[in-house]
């Protein structure tokens, strides 16, 4: 059952350490009183001390975002990856095998605490390791299927988000017409590209960027935060590692795909989707903050969102994407 009511939202926004510890204790885990917030906005995530001396991570899910079935489908995908020795941080199970817990208005999951550092994106060897890990992950994804997770598509991440921003009044009055003109130019091209570039839909991490990797001391990249798991093209899990000028992006793409091809073939036609997917992420990012603006945590984390400068930079990014879509795709 999805929890979607004002009382649950208020409880989530005012979640305090006592409630966190009580919720975890109520489902059979034994905390020792230590709790500290970790960097997260969509959900509330905490490091929690246990009586046995270890630390675990507790993720409290934002009400109204995912159904229980959707969350459990994410957990099942992570389990399938771990069974194939993909280095994924998966939810801890209780004695009954449950990974999703409920206490009062809160739904939450518990995870082992993992250490590590961010990957070095200028390190060709590390990029190749990331590529190999993704290739292995997508081999498992080829045999997996989602029924409840969303799709990577232009309607959800583009049209719906742009309509929300224009209808909500969050855009400054003098910039709204410019924004509308740009998305009216961008979105038909994005739809056309996603409709006409052939690709196979597979299960994805969905939000795979350097911040969702912890590089272990043994050289293993541990994959985190499958909260945005979705169905879509394989390149969705690759493109966020590819940025900078064309020569630099081309080199990084080659290093990633060299590793990827050791385990799975990559359809190079999907490279034409990189800039459409980047454009969708830019549009979705602004709408994501706007939709959460009633949450005090977002006001504190993104104070620049209410400034004219944010929208100047956002509109400039969209202009750059209009030009990028006219460029030939990267090649491998």
Helices and strands, with pairings:
Elements: H1 6-13, H2 17-26, E1 31-37, E2 44-50, E3 55-60, H3 68-83, E4 101-103, E5 106-112, H4 124-141, H5 154-168, H6 176-196, E6 202-204, E7 213-215, E8 221-223, E9 230-232, H7 246-260, H8 274-291, H9 296-301, H10 308-326
| Main sheet record | 5 strands, antiparallel
Annotated CATH topology of the largest domain: Transferase(Phosphotransferase), domain 1
Q: List the domain count as a whole number.
A: 2
Query: What percent of residues are in strands?
Result: 5-15%
Structural class: alpha+beta
* CATH level 1 class label of the largest domain: Mainly Alpha
Query: What average pLDDT do the residues reach?
Result: 94
Tally of contiguous helical segments: 10
- Radius of gyration, in Å, reads 21 Å
Return residue spans where pLDDT drops below 50 for at least 5 consecutive residues: none
Summary tags:
single chain; 332 residues; Transferase(Phosphotransferase), domain 1; alpha+beta; globular; 10 helices; Phosphorylase Kinase, domain 1; two-stranded antiparallel sheet; 5-stranded antiparallel β-sheet; 2 domains
């Amino acid at each position: 059952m999805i929890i979607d009511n004002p009382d649950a939202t208020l409880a989530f926004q005012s979640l305090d350490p006592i409630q966190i510890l009580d919720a975890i204790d109520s489902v059979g885990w034994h905390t020792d009183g230590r709790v500290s917030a970790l960097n997260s906005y969509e959900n509330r995530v905490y490091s929690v001390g246990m009586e046995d001396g270890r630390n675990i991570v507790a993720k409290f899910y934002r009400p109204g975002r995912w159904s229980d079935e959707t969350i459990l489908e994410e957990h099942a995908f992570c389990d399938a990856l771990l069974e194939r020795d993909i280095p994924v941080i998966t939810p801890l199970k209780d004695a009954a095998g449950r990974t999703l817990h409920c206490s009062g208005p809160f739904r939450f999951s518990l995870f082992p605490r993992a250490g590590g550092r961010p990957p070095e994106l200028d390190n060709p060897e590390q990029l190749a390791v990331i590529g190999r890990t993704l290739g292995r992950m997508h081999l498992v994804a080829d045999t997996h299927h989602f029924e409840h997770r969303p799709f990577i598509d232009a309607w959800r991440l583009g049209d719906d988000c742009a309509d929300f921003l224009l209808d909500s009044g969050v855009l400054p009055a003098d910039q709204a017409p410019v924004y509308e003109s740009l998305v009216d130019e961008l979105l038909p091209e994005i739809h056309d590209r996603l409709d006409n570039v052939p690709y196979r839909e597979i299960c994805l991490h969905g939000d795979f960027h350097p911040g969702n990797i912890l590089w272990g001391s043994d050289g293993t990249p541990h994959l985190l935060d499958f909260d945005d798991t979705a169905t879509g093209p394989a390149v969705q899990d690759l493109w966020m590692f590819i940025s900078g000028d064309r020569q630099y992006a081309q080199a990084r793409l080659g290093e990633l795909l060299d590793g990827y091809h050791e385990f799975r073939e990559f359809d190079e036609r999907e490279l034409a989707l990189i800039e459409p997917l980047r454009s969708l992420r830019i549009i979705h990012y602004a709408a994501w903050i706007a939709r959460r603006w009633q949450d005090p945590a977002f006001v504190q984390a993104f104070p620049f969102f209410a400034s004219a400068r944010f929208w100047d930079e956002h509109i400039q990014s969209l202009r750059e994407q209009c030009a990028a879509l006219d460029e030939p795709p990267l090649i491998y």
